[in-house]
Amino acid sequence: MGKSYDDISGRLRAFIEAQPVFFTATAPLAGDGTINLSPKGLKGSWAVLDEHTVAYLDFAGSNAETVAHLRENGRITLMWCAFEGPPNIVRVHGRGEPVFRDDARFPELLERFGGYDVTRNGLRAVVVVTAEKVRDTCGYAVPFMSYDEDRTLHTSRFAREDDASLSAYFEGKDDIATSIDGLPGVPLPLPPLKAP
């Protein structure tokens, strides 16, 4: 029922780009470390950059587990499920890297998000994932659920922050600069955001 692909193109790319939500899974190297699974929403905040590369905007949140795990070992799996239409699950297994605001690649990466207003959600980094394995599976047991719209709470909460107050917010959280397991997370203070 599952099938592997050499790249992210055609039907797979169209499927990924059409979904309103996806999930990330990462883990530290330590056998007793905390495995992390996160939902990612806000339509337009991820993009297929080419046949082997996906990127998404890493926004403000309560922790930085994904970023910390990627900084330690780079392993990541992304998953998209069809909640409407024909059943399907697509997974991209690969290596990820958080590209932070002060990285020379950051401005060029932001341009790949088609005018998404990156100043409104507490942007910390762009996570770039290079696919090592691309698979789809049936998704027969995934329920039908309808997408109504993105929630506005995240945007309304973080749109009022400037670089200094956002950095102060992160510095006041236990699991942003370091992960739950003590791994390096988001480097603080945040460099200024230069939106495209």
Please tell me about this protein's structure.
By secondary structure, the chain is of the alpha+beta class. It has helices spanning 10-18, 65-72, 106-110, 153-158, 163-171; strands spanning 3-5, 22-26, 36-40, 46-50, 53-58, 75-81, 89-100, 125-137. Strands 1, 2, 3, 4, 5, 6, 7 and 8 form an eight-stranded antiparallel beta sheet that branches. A hairpin with a 2-residue loop joins β4 (46-50) and β5 (53-58). The longest helix is centred in the N-terminal third of the chain and has 9 residues, at 10-18.
Distance N to C terminus: 43 Å
Count the E strands.
Answer: 8
- Helix and strand composition category: alpha+beta
How would you spell out the order of helices and strands? EHEEEEHEEHEHH
Number of helices: 5
Low-confidence stretches: none
Strand content: 25-35%
Percent range of helical residues: 10-25%
